[in-house]
Specification:
The chain is of the alpha/beta class and 302 residues long. It folds into 3 domains: 90 residues, no CATH class; 130 residues, no CATH class; 65 residues, no CATH class. It is 36% helix and 15% strand. It contains 10 helices and 7 strands. The protein has a 7-stranded mixed sheet with strand order 1-2-3-4-5-7-6. Helix 1 packs antiparallel against helix 2 and helix 7 crosses helix 8. The longest helix has 17 residues. It is elongated.
């Protein structure tokens, strides 16, 4: 199949096939089957449909998915028989989720082998203030939804949909973020509900939204989250002192914000001052900098 598509078309084809085989209800199966059929029929080359049919038949013979991959050229009913047999089967060795029916499913057990698309049932629990360069410029931004893609119990990626934000969708692939959200195999195979981990999270914001300018100009408004080196550590490097005697200046904030790619200098200033106030407070943050900021660089001057 790969040689019949462009890379982007092949990716869309794989995603649609995956959607179909992840279905758990007839209603959802019909929806995604028609979407897949429409995609294949949009190509004038008949070899694409023939190649898909051969692939679908071979796939369905070895797959343990709840529903087989439809061939569209199969008139003898064998595909339908496979589907009926699987509906009546007690073999649930693989738990595969349907994105539109997550709430109807039981919570996955710790011993399950889990593959599929999962809707987060409490997406608004994602705390946008943890994205340090977002809410100052987009104070009305909110989370509209979130989907997690899981293969063999491992989260491959998550996509968060935003309302009134700088992008429509935010891609998350950093596993440290999944851990902070309480998602993943290590969290008891939790792929459906956000539980912020207090041990994984610090008080200050810890994520940055990156946006490719070209994508925005082309109308594909996709950003991604990352957990970069803390901005306070960059500021220490700018001062060349391990324990500066005065707080960050406006000029330093401006230069550092430009260097680190912040959308707004005030976001950077707030994060720097959060750390400065804590390190110069009574709770011994300064002595435990490596623990809570991830590093404690040393310089010629203390």
């Amino acid at each position: 199949m790969r040689n019949l598509f462009t890379p982007a078309q092949h990716k869309e084809y794989k995603d649609l096939c995956f959607r179909v085989t992840c279905c758990r209800t007839r209603e959802s199966l019909n929806k995604w089957t028609q979407t897949l059929r429409g995609f294949l029929e949009s190509f004038p080359n008949p070899e694409i449909m023939n190649a898909h049919s051969e692939y679908a038949i071979a796939f369905s013979k070895v797959s343990t998915a709840h529903y087989p991959l439809p061939s569209f050229n199969d008139d003898d009913g064998s595909q339908e028989n496979i589907a009926v047999d699987r509906e009546n089967s007690d073999d649930q060795g693989i738990v595969i989720d349907d994105t539109e029916n997550t709430l109807a499913m039981d919570e996955p057990s710790a011993s399950s082998t889990i593959t599929g698309y999962f809707d987060i049932v409490n997406p608004t629990r994602f705390e946008l203030p943890r994205i340090r360069n977002l809410l100052r410029q987009y104070p009305n931004c909110s989370v509209a939804g979130m989907e997690v893609v899981v293969e063999d119990n491992h989260i491959i990626r998550a996509v968060m949909t935003l309302h009134d934000g700088p992008v429509d969708n935010v891609l998350i692939i950093d596993h440290s973020i999944f851990s902070r959200m309480g998602l993943g195999e290590d969290m008891g195979n939790n792929f459906t509900k956000i539980y912020w981990s207090e041990t994984e999270n610090k008080i200050v914001p810890s994520m940055v939204l990156r946006i490719h300018t070209e994508q925005v100009e082309e109308g594909n408004k996709m950003g991604f989250l990352e957990v970069p080196r803390h901005s306070y550590l960059h500021w220490l490097n700018l001062r060349r002192r391990q324990f500066p005697h005065s707080p960050p200046t406006e000029e330093e904030c401006y230069d550092l914000a430009k260097k680190l790619g912040y959308m707004d200098m005030e976001d950077l200033k707030k994060e720097l001052m959060d750390v400065w106030d804590r390190e110069n407070g009574p709770l011994r943050y300064k002595e435990n900098r490596a623990l809570w900021l991830g590093d404690n660089p040393t310089y010629l001057l203390p």
